[in-house]
Amino acid sequence: MEPMSLPDQTRSRGRTGGGRQPGARTLPVAALWTGAVVCATAVFAVYAFFVRTVLGQQLDEAPLTSAQRLHTAEAPAAVWLQTLPWFLIAGVLIGLAVLIALVRRRWAVLIAVGVTVAGATLSTQFLKYAVFSRPDLGVDTLTLNSLPSGHTTAGGAAAVALLLAVPRRWRPVFGVAGAAFTTLVAGSTLVSYWHRPADVVAALGVVGAWALAAAALTDPRSDPRPRRRSRGAGWAAMDRAVVDQARVAGLTLLGVATVAVCVAALLYTGVIPASLAGTGGNLWAGLLLEASAASAVFAGLTLAFGRRSVLP
User: What mean pLDDT do residues 234-256 have?
Assistant: First the structure.
């Protein structure tokens, strides 16, 4: 029998389904679980440093002290942020996410939204009141434990719920918008003298852990029903475009997170003098730390949820 030429072999693989389908960019379920574990570990690491050590408490208290002075002065920004009904806004966004999932008839997405919102909200309250405590280490600070932040958890979970519910081609946009919204909610808790920066960072870790775990639990590849392998070159091209857009959005958010955390470190350590930073330098440091955490978490979620294999 005459051996097949290379073009013949290529066409044969295409007919029999061998080889990789165009645009089929998948993400292993193990990667989702790994991300969830990393986020959960970060929550306990933040608690161990910022609550259980003297240096951590000092760093965490400095922005709150600056915020207290701003709050006492009744700055317009503080008053405006404090009066916004964040829990009501979060509830509306979650309801909108549920409605989108129902209209799209995406039952796995609906389950993922429920797991993320309920899991993050309940575990935040459990950690704050039943697991974590704030020891007296001689630092002039409120002894009441406030980690993780319930406001930030609600706002972050609402933003993630929308990120999950919308069609995949819109997820890069909602990833960036979710980071901005969550940063605003987080900043309001500090400016209004409600929460320390570490409370916000821990809350974002809780949200990220539950979102990734929910995506892993409802991964479509675990569905025993047969799925369509390919929908043509047009769909494959769209798959590649969405992945590329998610990559750009995610890397942009990672860049924002890196810059924000670096500037926050410079402000915390006094490398940027008070003549440039102003009297509220510590407050800016705390706000930038919160922004870096929100950007980093949503960068990871945008990169993960933009893949074809994750909750289409």
Answer: 81
Distance between CA atoms of 165 and 311, rounded to whole angstroms? Answer: 9
Lookup: tokens for 240 = 């590649």
- Contact between 152 and 203 under an 8 Å Cβ cutoff? The reply is yes
Please list, in sequence order, all residues whose beta carbon lies within 8 angstroms of the beta carbon of residue 48, skipping any fewer than 6 positions away: none
At 216, list the tokens: 């892993």
Instruction: Please state, as a whole number, how many other Cβ atoms lie within 10 Å of the Cβ of residue 108.
Output: 19
pLDDT tens profile 137-182: 988 877 789 999 999 999 999 999 999 999 988 999 999 999 999 9
CA 217/CA 226 separation, integer angstroms: 18
Which of 204, 217, 222, 189 has its CA nearest to residue 159? 204
**Any long-range contacts for 259-265 (C-beta under 8 Å, 24+ apart)?**
260/288, 260/289, 260/291, 260/292, 260/295, 261/288, 261/289, 261/292, 263/288, 264/288, 264/289, 264/292
Contact assessment for residue 288 and residue 262, using Cβ atoms and an 8 Å cutoff: no
* Dist CA 223 CA 69 (whole Å): 55
Look at residues 252, 159, 149 and name the one whose alpha carbon lies nearest to residue 200: 149
Q: What does the alpha-carbon distance between residue 267 and residue 272 come to, in Å, rounded to a whole number?
A: 5
